[in-house]
Structure formats: structure tokens, C-alpha cells
Amino acid sequence: MIIVNFCVYVLEYLLGLLCVVSLMSYRVLFLVVLPLVITLAFFELPSMCEGETTLRVRIGAGDKFLFFELNDSPMAKEFYSLLPLKVKVTDFAGKEKIFQLPRKLNTQGAPEAKPVVGTIAYYAPWGNIAIFYSDSNPASGLFELGRCVAGTDYIRDLEGTIVVERVETLPDKYMCPR
């Protein structure tokens, strides 16, 4: 988005200069600048923004859903590549819900987690995912995957078998029965 705003600013500045410099600026505008802007808009800008995709996850149990946005660490991308998963969730220490992954994740370069309400993290020693519904103390080997962006109040209610899956976008209006 920053690149797009910068490009627009530069184009506006250049168009202003063209209008001041010559009376033929409209001809230059339509013959040179406009095709350049169209080319940039359709071919260059989308490719510049390709790396800005946010990884989103939905966790559901029955009619209750939580939505998470993952960070851009290689570990979070690896977790995302494992989805969808159908797993059994259990309560741990009265502060978090946990579930096992089919395999361990590589934690190299992953940020350490600050376990606060809404944090989804990977606990490397056990190879499990932790979702915090209460603040907790940091632990060695706990790495942050992302944050809950909708449905945080339902973390405590997760039990039994849950489905962890990819989602492209978040719902316009998050609705979940209590």
C-alpha cells in the first residue's frame, strides 16, 4: 500500500510539472503519461503487492468460530501449509487450549510469544499449538504464530474436536451465537 501511495504521489507531481512546462502538456499526458500509468497499474503494482498476503485461519467447533491472522514468519507459513486439520482440543492450566500437530515445526527465526489473550502460539518442546484465553507467563520454546482478530470470547468454549482451516478473508460482520 505504501508503494501504491508513493507511485500516485510521484505521478501527480510529474503531471503538475508537465502542465506547467508546456502548453502541449495535454497531448503529452494522453500520449505518454496515461499509457504509462495504465501499464503500471495493471502489470507492475499487483506484482509489487504479491508479498503482502495475510494468512488467515478459522478455528471452529460447532457453531462457534474464531479468526486469526498469522505473522509472516516461516514457522507461521509452515503451520498454514498443514491446514486444514481436524484435531482434538484440550484445556491446559486454566489459561489456554492446546492441540497436537501432525509434525513438529521449524522454529528458526520465529518470534518468541508473549502469551496474552488471543495469542496463538507453537510450543516447540511438545509440538503443540496453544491458544490463550487468559494471560500467562512467557515460556522457553513458546513461539508466536499470530493473533485472534475475531471471536476471542469463544476461546474458552473450545472443546472436543475442532476444525482448523485456511480462509481468504474475514467476514464483513462477525456473528457468532453465544
How would you characterize the largest beta sheet?
Answer: 8 strands, antiparallel, barrel
Q: How does the helix and strand content classify structurally?
A: alpha+beta
Mean pLDDT: 81
Number of helices: 3
Low-confidence stretches: 42-49
Q: Which value, in Å, is the CA radius of gyration? A: 23 Å
Overview of this protein structure:
This protein is α+β, with helices and mostly antiparallel strands. It contains three helices and eight strands, in the order ααββαββββββ. The protein has an eight-stranded antiparallel beta barrel with strand order 1-2-7-5-6-4-3-8. Strand 1 and strand 2 form a beta hairpin. About 4% of the residues have low confidence.
Give me the secondary-structure topology:
Elements: H1 2-21, H2 25-48, E1 56-61, E2 64-70, H3 74-81, E3 85-92, E4 96-100, E5 119-123, E6 128-132, E7 142-150, E8 160-167
Antiparallel strand pairs: 1-2, 1-8, 2-7, 3-4, 3-8, 4-6, 5-6, 5-7
Helix pairs in contact: 1-2
What structural keywords apply?
178 residues, alpha+beta, eight-stranded antiparallel barrel, 30% strand, globular
Write a compact overview of the structure shown.
A hairpin with a 4-residue loop joins strand 5 (119-123) and strand 6 (128-132). The chain has three helices and eight strands.
